[in-house]
Amino acid sequence: MNDPHAQRLANSLRWLAAELAPFPGRSQFAMRLTLASAIAIVIGETFRIPYMVMALVAVFFTVQSNVVMTRVVFVALALANVVAVPLYVWLLNFTFDHTVLRIVVSSVLFFCFMFCTRVSKVGGVLLGPALVILYAQSFADQTAQVEYLVRQTLWAVAAITYGSVLALLVNSLFASANPLCQLEAETHRQLTRAAGRLHRLLSGEATMPPLSAQALQQQSAMLQSLTAVTNMGDANDYAGQQYRQCCVAAVSHAQHVCNTLPGALPAGAPPALRRALERLRGELLAFDAALGARKVFRLRWVPDVEERASLPALAQAEDLYRTLQAVDRFEGASEPGQPRVKEPLLVPDAFSNPAYVRFALKVLISGLIGYFVFNVLQWPGIHTIMITSAMVALPGLGTSVRQMTLRFYGALLGSLSALGVFVFVMPHIDTIVGLLLAMLPVIAAGAWLTAGSERLSYLGTQGAATFAIALLEHFGPSTDLTEIRDRVVGIILGVGICWGVYVFLWPESESSQTRAKLASLVRALAALVRMPVREDDPARQMAYARQHMQCWSSLNDCALELERVRYEPQFKRGALEQLAEQAGCLLAVSRDLLVAQDHVHARALAAADGGDGADGGACAARGTPHAACALAPADGLRDETAALLDLYAARAGERGEPPTREQNQLRANALEIAGTSPLLEDVRRLALHAAELPGWDTGIDTTTAAANGVAAAAPTTRKAP
């Protein structure tokens, strides 16, 4: 396929298929979301609750992948209602008859709320009051009766409240929504796969193809994410958190170790090795059972002399045994609780970094322009033009542009779906059952998208909300197509206004943050490569497993950051495109480095125990102990590799010249070093990967981001429509 357009289309279709593909937990998430939406529709239609669409929106906003996050969002939404409603009623009481004063006071409050969402760790709670203040301006100019306006506001709050309560109840009733259950299911899946590869190796069956580096990256990131959420729901049990993190790191490392198993046992493998591998497989399954039963794992197998001596013959077996031994000997669970360092409520540079003030000003300017257009056109149906400014307000230009893109396409898909229902289905509906049958397929499709990755999740939320607005605006069947037209026009105008403001007024490029994260990734890789290997040291083995998992998680963060940069409007014009290309190459090399390091660590452990890491005859001829002879040249090359990675990270972080000369020197040393042992071959491969790290143009950088002082963390995509 030589046609670039056809190739681009094929790549897009593969990407879309991967985004729509099921993964563990996705179907349960979508089912809970669809069920809560159906119940909300039935209750709203039965009791004729106004603003039923807002209840559906509250359902999509509240339901999260697990019950802990659902409770957090529910509490945030409840607090937002408690703050927003009295504040808005008070505002109307003093300013309803003074339009200019109302606009000025509302603008000041909205600015303060948006500033706090950026600088406070609980700022997301204030997004709700900000939306109420902004959204209510569209109704204040449509009526002269303040009592009617307050009544409508209270009905809207009631709809949001019952929708969020329904979402919380539905999520709480499903055991699969518990993050600990989700973590246990994921560890079970990974340990079962690892034990399956060991079984196939022993039975001589065709080995399962190893997972790709991208799949390993996603699985490590999923484990770490589920662990963080589980610990959030169990914040007071410090010892339990430490042991859980130990077990999760061991699961991740065991998965990576078994992923590198060869297709067959080494030639002349002793029978003791087969026995040892079978016992290791049993211990993996016992580890899985202990995690499922929420008990402390104890290694039941004590290898005899022959079994222990046979393990280094297969490097992965030695590594796996050391990992399980480290879990068995982990002492963190018995340590007393250690005081935590509490995170400050505000970011350290909250009042010194101008980026936060500029961010709030941009959102306010977008909202005021939308309010002006709304009043000039005198078009009540396009009131979504204003809330769009707050819903796409995310730190970083690429993140905001992606949110705008998803909002636009979500509104378009939802409107087209509603149009199809209006034309082909609505004439045949006369009961609530028919309404549900017409709506649930589209709601379920939106729920499936929402349950996916952040790349498309907001698309599903926005599509379902736009579809529901068209069908649920009135009680009973409706044939008014202007609802569809008005909502789409409002969203398109709002997205256009926000795009212009965000791109041309203090644009916050995320590319400087991308480079900082890449430098941090390479620094973590250097620490992993440098970690020493010693005989029978479970503490070091566990520290290595944790660092290994952290490297994969950091790699996943960098990949997500790079995707956000690709949405920036300047991406296809020179500097950013080249930076993204070099960053993509660096991530690919980093994946290869991590996979190569899996082999190196296993070989080094085997060599430390006197395995096949070196040429035993050569060692004996020199009178050198076998283990020392195996590790000495390999350790030297590993130290050189780690030093290069540290230097590369420092240069990348400081935007200095890439260490091209040092990379060439490492490549030459790796090719010239004497020895043919398996360990040395693996270390040589590791060094050659490090020598392939891409260079960069020091002129490429993020002057915009540097001038604005962009804050560090980029948030996930906001799901409220």
Q: Could you explain how this protein is built, in words?
A:
It is a single chain. 46% of the residues are buried. The chain contains 27 helices and no strands. The chain is mainly alpha-helical and 721 residues long. It is elongated, with a radius of gyration of 29 Å. It has helices spanning 4-20, 26-47, 52-62, 67-95, 99-119, 127-140, 146-173, 179-203, 213-232, 238-259, 271-293, 305-310, 315-328, 354-377, 384-391, 397-425, 432-450, 457-472, 482-504, 511-530, 538-565, 575-608, 616-622, 626-654, 660-672, 678-691, 703-708.
Number of strands: 0
CATH classification class of the largest domain: Mainly Alpha
- Taking pLDDT < 50 over at least 5 consecutive residues as the criterion, the unreliable ranges are 333-337, 613-618, 620-627, 699-721
Largest sheet: none
User: What is the CATH architecture term of the largest domain?
Assistant: Up-down Bundle
Give the overall form: elongated
Give a brief outline of the structure:
The chain has 721 residues and is an all-alpha fold. The chain is built from 27 helices and no strands. Helix 3 packs parallel to helix 7 and helix 20 packs antiparallel against helix 24.
Keywords:
721 residues; mainly alpha; disordered C terminus; elongated; 27 helices
Blueprint (SSEs and pairs):
Layout: H1 4-20, H2 26-47, H3 52-62, H4 67-95, H5 99-119, H6 127-140, H7 146-173, H8 179-203, H9 213-232, H10 238-259, H11 271-293, H12 305-310, H13 315-328, H14 354-377, H15 384-391, H16 397-425, H17 432-450, H18 457-472, H19 482-504, H20 511-530, H21 538-565, H22 575-608, H23 616-622, H24 626-654, H25 660-672, H26 678-691, H27 703-708
